[in-house]
Amino acid sequence: MFNITPMVRNLLIINVVVFMLQDRLFNSADFALYHFGSQNFMPVQLLTHMFLHGDWSHLFSNMFSLFIFGPLLERFWGGQRFLAFYLITGLGASVLYSGVRAYEIHQLRADTTQYIEAPTPMGYYNYMEEHYAGRFDKNFAVEFQRNPDNEAYVSESKDAVRYVFNQVFNSPMLGASGAVFGILMAFGLLFPNLELFLLFLPIPIKAKYFVLMYGAYELYAGFNRVPGDNVAHFAHLGGMLFAYILVKMWQSNDYQDHY
Question: I need a labelling partner for 19 at 20 to 30 A (CA). Which of 26, 139, 145, 188 fits?
């Protein structure tokens, strides 16, 4: 499992080199994936965001998973099919993420409009807690509560809400996690009874149970998002969903070809 294969090696090199060059030779923000309604969105970002990472820990976690689980899949499929799988699941992850993101932005826009039309101290606090928790000035919220009719506070609160909307609306997503979670799903489907030895578990666990637990966690985290959580859980789920569909399609086609 630990003998690296050619396509996995190439992907590792590309991701590491791009990470070392981003923000030196080019602005990574230009190639991360923005909401399709943003003026910063470009279609090419659906592909390029997969080769960008936020920091070394983000890069390491994705590349470590690719290094551990990728080679066996490449040996099973061959290099070309493995690369196609990696790119398709990464693109599929971005599509599902973008759909969920569009819904979230719609809700954010509605909440923003509602507050601008009827600003109140409690409305301000609730808006900030829901959309910008841990990153807003609670002292101002207290002062606004004490002086709800202060025109300066009302105006400042509106400006703050507009700022949050623009920040969230123009916040991009980047990373290979969608493709990596696709690899995890494929690994669990193709080698379900292979036992994995994980650092955080004292006993081995079969691949199918590991993938099932990971998928359940991502589903829970996606629908019960903790304020301040900037992990794209639905991108992870998108990678797993498209991986499941793709593996089943290939298995069906391969069976028909051999029948």
Answer: 188
